[in-house]
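Question (not urgent): is this output format expected?
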Amino acid sequence: MLVCGLWGNQLSRARVGVLLSGRGSNFLALAEACRRGEVPAEIVLVISNRPEAPGLGKAQELGIPAVAIPSKGLPREEHEGLLLAALRKAQVDWVCLAGYMRLLSPSFVAAFPNRILNIHPALLPAFPGLDAQKQAWEYGVKVSGCTVHLVDAGCDSGPIVVQRVVAVRDDDTAETLAARILEQEHIAYPQALRLLLTRPWRIEGRRVVFALGA
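Got this back:
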């Protein structure tokens, strides 16, 4: 059992680094929740492994430091070393993955133990990996959704923090289902980070357990 308490004190704000590879819509949902004061955190750095990622430009528009650290052609160890150096320079406390399309190595995960969050567009442990919405739709499930989880060394296998359910309609396509799941992702991600920063919690096996009445 790992026991974790409240983040600092009521006056402190966690420093968050975001890793993304694409448009960054979940990053924007987090940034807006922080701006409104719903999440006691500040996004202090956005990094993309793809220089053309639209999320970088969106971060710059918000005045958030944003850099590209291209992964193409680099060994994973070298690329992750550059990521860690940038995150440490920004004094990041938590790392949030927002559509980051690379698996993190065990050594990277160990640098931020139980302080890396990811959001996945399915109800884990069902449909891990890529194209989760399409996987769920093709399988014929009646409900799908999204999952926010702490990151471990596996693929979408860390302890679950928050899940939100989306009904699969008979007239859905993989694209319409993905769009409705994305709406719930934008709710679930800020909710999960807020819970982790404001309530006592612990990990029991694979479960994230929040203190009752906190």
